[in-house]
Each structure stands twice: as structure tokens, then as C-alpha cells.
């Protein structure tokens, strides 16, 4: 779900992170080129470069000059840990409050449906 209030580069970063967490890209995999990803997302290549740069700054991707950008070793684990922390700190509390407010029980939630 895209949050239109976020800057485009952060939305692109979320798409890349989700692709890594979903296993589309694993540690050591080559990411799409800036231009290829920009074309696929209908985004400006400079904006994609900014999203990629933020991953590089965080040590989640490494650049091999003349070859491309690769998911760094341990990036999947580190992303998962960061997303779990963000979920538990920011997303879950209002969801839990709504569950209590509505009187839902675990049986009411089909946790296996996607």
C-alpha cells in the first residue's frame, strides 16, 4: 500500500525492501539497474538513484563499479529486524487497540489468509 504522503524515493525504497523481504532478491543478488527500475516504476532515474543511495548508506547494498548494485550479505536479516521493530512500535499498537475496541478474538481473525 503506497503512502502518497511519503516522498517518492521513500516509496521506491519500500518497494525494494519488500522485494528483498519477499525473497525476490536475496543476499548477493544483483538489483535492477537504476534505469531499469525507474522504467518499471514509472519514476525518475535520479529519484531511484536516491533510493538506492539510501540503501548503500545503510550498508544494505554494495556497488561493484561497472557491474551493478548487489544486496549485501546480511541485508535480508537486517531489513527484517528493522521492519519487525517498526511494525511492533508503530503499526501494531493502533491495530491492537482497534482489535480490543471491536472485541475481536483470535478465532475471529483468519491469520492464514493473505
UniProtKB/TrEMBL annotation:
Q: Where is the HTH gntR-type domain?
A: 6-74
Cross-referenced InterPro entries: Tscrpt_reg_HTH_GntR, WH-like_DNA-bd_sf, WH_DNA-bd_sf
**What SMART domains does the annotation carry?**
HTH_GNTR (SM00345)
> Is-annotated flag, keyword Phosphoprotein?
no
Keyword DNA-binding tagged: yes
- Which of UniProt's keywords are assigned here? DNA-binding, Transcription, Transcription regulation
An example Gene Ontology molecular-function term = DNA binding
Protein's name according to its UniProt entry = GntR family transcriptional regulator
Organism expressing this protein natively? Sphingobium limneticum
Amino acid at each position: 500500500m503506497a503512502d502518497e504522503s511519503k516522498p517518492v524515493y521513500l516509496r521506491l525504497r519500500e518497494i525494494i525492501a519488500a522485494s528483498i523481504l519477499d525473497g525476490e532478491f536475496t543476499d548477493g543478488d544483483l538489483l535492477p539497474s537504476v534505469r531499469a527500475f525507474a522504467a518499471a516504476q514509472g519514476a525518475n532515474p535520479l529519484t531511484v538513484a536516491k533510493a538506492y543511495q539510501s540503501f548503500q548508506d545503510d550498508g544494505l547494498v554494495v556497488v561493484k563499479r561497472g557491474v551493478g548494485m548487489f544486496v549485501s550479505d546480511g541485508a535480508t536479516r537486517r531489513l527484517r529486524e528493522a521492519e519487525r521493530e517498526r511494525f511492533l512500535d508503530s503499526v501494531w499498537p493502533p491495530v491492537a487497540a482497534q482489535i480490543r475496541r471491536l472485541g475481536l478474538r483470535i478465532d475471529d481473525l483468519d491469520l492464514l489468509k493473505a
